[in-house]
Amino acid sequence: MNKPFYALDKGELAKLLQEWGEPGFRLEQVLEQAYALRRHGFSEAHNLPKALRARLEESHPLRTGRIASKAVSRDGETVKFLLRLADGESVETVIIGAPSRRSVCISSQVGCDLGCRFCASTIGGKRRDLGMHEILEQFAAAQSISEERITHVVLMGMGEPLLNYANVVKALRVLTGRFGFGLSHRRVTLSTIGVVEGMRMLANEPLRVNLAVSLHAPNQELRKHIVPSAERWKFDDILAAAAHYQERTGRQVTMEYCLIDGFNDSAGHARMLGRRLKGTGFAVNLIPYNPVAGLEWKRPRRDRVRRFRDALAALGVPATVRREKGADISAACGQLRRRIDG
């Protein structure tokens, strides 16, 4: 089977076009058309010769997956779609609207095998990694159905991006590349559970994307109860790798903290976390738990969320509370999962 277009790098495409007898200037033309907004396939690329369009579409199609289903939140600001992949597997992708921006939350694996006990994505385990082209196709598919231009990308969907390192990094290069989708590095965020070696490798890449770390507890002992991978990647090692990334890239690292009622949301937990993060330069993004069918956890009351945020602020740790988006269509943080229907 030939490579899908989004799996080709620039050098491979240049060689291909040369073998097909195309003039040298055709490379930039093809790239421009491939990454143009709302482009479903080369059949729409009318400034390319008809024969070339047909040949590209047949041998290296832009899309190998299809949108199998779509759901829109009541407020109209969030759209979740199921992307059916060529082998029949599927991933969920979410478009999130906000004033002056439109983000897409992209998956990096089909399912997840890290076993975080509050997250829907781990139910059913991991089937496989996504290829570079399947990561990019989510962005292209989102742009094709969005009424507005996609301005930001967050790799916070299904799976752990840094455990699919090669494909994710190649996709990031295209998302931010001149001969790609051309997003600013500052508008791309990668979220990790704390894969220490991956964080350190990413710090050495020429990419300067934002990094978010799913911490979810103020110490190693409590974290082990809800994040099984804490046994492999220790709390202090994660913070050290985050500090390295921040120093190396100049990007402030964000610690994501899912607030779960009665488990990690007390004032004492906040003070413990604040003392640990004080002086690091990290920011904290608090995420009130989004319910998942079949899981026992509950969302804390708003006053507990405010107290937690204020306790961090009192220790000089900047903290924000993530605004809930798309919970009515199971599109909020922690609610994406592998589907076999649709």
The CATH class of the largest domain: Alpha Beta
CATH architecture of the largest domain: Alpha-Beta Barrel
CATH superfamily of the largest domain, by name, is: Aldolase class I
Main sheet summary: 10 strands, mixed
Structural class, judged by helices and strands? alpha/beta
Proportion of residues in extended strands: 15-25%
Please, how many domains? 2
> Could you tell me the radius of gyration in angstroms?
21 Å
Taken from the alpha-carbon principal axes, the silhouette is elongated
Mean pLDDT: 92
List the SSEs and their pairings.
Elements: H1 10-19, H2 26-34, H3 50-59, E1 66-72, E2 78-84, E3 90-98, E4 101-105, E5 109-111, E6 126-129, H4 132-145, E7 152-155, H5 165-176, E8 188-192, H6 196-203, E9 210-214, H7 220-226, H8 235-249, E10 254-259, H9 267-277, E11 283-288, H10 302-314, E12 319-321
Parallel strand pairs: 4-7, 7-8, 8-9, 9-10, 10-11, 11-12
Antiparallel strand pairs: 1-2, 2-3, 3-4, 5-6
Helix pairs in contact: 4-5, 6-8, 9-10
Give a written overview of the molecule.
This protein has 342 residues and is of the alpha/beta class. It has 2 domains: 5-59, DNA polymerase, domain 1 (Orthogonal Bundle), CATH 1.10.150.530; 76-329, Aldolase class I (TIM Barrel). Helix content is 32%, strand content 19%. The longest helix has 15 residues, at 235-249. The radius of gyration is 21 Å and the shape is elongated. Mean pLDDT is 92; it is low at 338-342.
List keywords for this structure.
single chain, 342 residues, alpha/beta, DNA polymerase, domain 1, TIM Barrel, 2 domains, ten-stranded mixed sheet, two-stranded antiparallel sheet, 32% helix, disordered C terminus
